[in-house]
Each structure stands twice: as structure tokens, then as C-alpha cells.
């Protein structure tokens, strides 16, 4: 199979192991889809509730989305074509706008009585990676593996590259004091009619963000049982 980079259609990237992962561009389908606004949990709140415990249980769901069947009359809407032919999904796949809400609703129904007490199965461990963060009794830390990837990112050469880097770094913005001020030279390039000149200020901002991520401290979740003074 020859895989050609195509920003306008389906993309079949090679996985790190031995198989393929099919990524379908469902933007037009999502535009026509009636939205399911089921509330998703806030990442920060979940991390704060999970951190500072002595032991953890980690249970990784196997092919979670594929456990949810698609109504037969709607399956044809997921049709896609690739070098091997034309196919239709019988089970929910990522890329569909209502997939996260549907999956969260199922998880709430199944685990409503033990939600966030259990989460590949690891029992009685003292730390672990969840939602891109390392949690332990000490608090919340960045995932070093992801930080290494961000640190090795090259200087952006396009607007898309700027958005990509700021998206990666911004995921950990709570660990970086004055993130918005530091990243301002780069965010300025995203403004309408702004010429793309990756100046020395942008280079310095990029380096500063990378340095602060590699030196990020441990965040301790507040104890909501204690009084707060403003």
C-alpha cells in the first residue's frame, strides 16, 4: 500500500506496532449530525480528585468505542473508501462528533457506583499515568514521555505548525506560570493578516516553554475541606 499525505480526505497512518489505524475525515457528516451535548468530565477536576491517594487501580478498556454498535440504518453514513475497497463501520469509531458523549454516557451507566475509584490492569500501585498526567500521593505531574516529544518538536514553519505546538504545550499550561504572556509572540502570528515571520522573540518563547515544561513542578490539589482566604 502506498500512503499519500492528503489533507482533504482519509489518511491511513502506520501505527508504531504492526497494524494500521484508519482515520476518517467526518467533518461533513458531523456538520449534518444533531449534536448530543452529554456533559464530559473536566480534566482538571478529575486529576485533582484522583491525586494525593496512597494506592490506585488502573483498568484500561479494550477498544472502548468498538464495544458500542451503530444503529443499522445509520451505518452507511460512516462509509469510507481506501485502497482495499469501500467499507462501513458497524461499531462506533473515533472522529464522530457524538462518540465521546455516547461513550461517556455508557461509562457512567456501567460504573456509576464506582466511578473514579477504579480506572491494562494495575492493582495497588502508588502512581500511574492518566489523562496525560502522572498522579501519585505527591500530587499531579506532567507525563515525561509526552514532554520529551514536545521538547523535540522543531521550530514551526507554518500557521498550522504554530497551532500544533501551542496545542501540545497548552495542554500543560497549568504547570507554566504566565503561559499566555510567554507564548504571545507566537499567538500574534495567528492573528488575521499577520505576516508569518518566526522572529527571535518567537524562538525565545518556544525555548522558554520547552524549558519550563521540562522543569515543571509537582502540583498539589487543594484540600477543599480547609478554609480559603482571598
From TrEMBL:
CDD domains: RT_LTR. Pfam families: RVT_1. Transmembrane segments: none annotated. Residues 17-118 form the Reverse transcriptase domain. It comes from the Eukaryota. This is Retrovirus-related Pol polyprotein from transposon 17.6. It comes from Tanacetum cinerariifolium.
